[in-house]
Write the structure tokens for this entry.
Amino acid sequence: MGFTSAKLAAVSAIACMTVSATPVARAEAPASADRPHTEEAAARPIDKTWLYLDDARVADPGAVIAMASVAYTSVASNPDPTSEPYRAFAANTAQAGGLTALGAEVGVLPRISFEALGQVQLRGDGPGVNPGALAGARFDLSPPSWRAVHLVASGGYLRETSSTPAADEHASPSAAPGGADGAWASLAVAWDLERLRFGVTTLGEHVFAAGRDGVDIMVQAGVSYRVASWLRAGAEWVGQDLEESLSGAAEGGARHFVGPTAAVRLLHDRLTIVAGPSLGLSTGSPTVLGRLAVAYGF
């Protein structure tokens, strides 16, 4: 009896130890096996699905987002080659002819990133275009508790992307060859409502040159719908130089254009391709525009 009791006690003790150890093994083994796959799948995801609007999100610390775009605006849209008919902002959305841009956003701190962009003429069938540049900082103002609403403020330095005017004694001072330097500030808001996404970007800039408006205002608005996990379709509207709607036209007057867009996300959301055509809505606006933008997260 004593031997049997001792044996039963030993078996019970071993059983208890096995049961106690089993949850630990089940909790640790899958986690260590799945972690590398999860990290690889989620490496540097980006969300740049707008074509013209500023995406209201900031790159993670240490992340690099490379960006490139090509655009074409009908050359006949320029009603007066001696004036500066389009915004001279480096991220210009309506400069006559073909343009290409290349830049990057780098996450430096949680909720803070730096961004730089350069733009040059792509083809020479329009007026001569001086290269432009933009550089600045971006700040995520959205509280962590805001899951569906995103708010980003940004600002910095710009160098005009400007047309070289034809020689004319009546040429506007704003169209001086070589462009001018300036400062800019922007506020971007995005709201995700299930599959729908709404966005608004407001931008103000001041160019340090004679004969220019005190503040140039651009507003962009858009809506997109998630058709699939990798595809969004929508439309965007852009209003440039809106400050000239009710005042003088130092830069050719206000212009508006609108068009459909499509965004494709690939490689675990590390690569985004966005494209779409647009049509002018007002006198002096570009007749036809087309743009394609690519972003890749490292």
Notes: The longest helix spans residues 2-41. Helices lie at 2-41. The chain is about 15% helix and 45% strand. The radius of gyration is 27 Å.
